[in-house]
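Record now logged underneath.
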Amino acid sequence: MSQHVVVPVALYQRIFVTLIVLTVVTVAVALVDLGEWNAVVALSIASLKASLVALYFMGLRWGDRMTRVAVLVALAGVALLFGASLNDDLTRESKTYLPAELRPEMLDFSVQGLDGLTPEVAPPPAPPPAAAPDTAHGAAH
């Protein structure tokens, strides 16, 4: 079991100011066109900010070994999920989901039924004629 650590308030204040400065830097970087590097820089700053929050405000810096192992296993699981998703996206032959060209047989596309045959669809029946209001009896008031 770990001991309780008393952290000076000045440390929390410095971390808070650092987080605010990093937020301003994130906004400034978003306004500058870095091309494809915008996302990389923004995610790097966000990772640094998340690390500061986890280490200091969540107390992982002073946590015991088991807590650190649990956090590392969770981060490895998230990295595994991201890696599996990127593996699917980065190994595709084509990045488009549309055919390269429209072939003539695709212009007249009809949906087939479960038996492989295209069902003949009859036009919907015409609605019945509206009945004329009955005015012979009148309404009693």
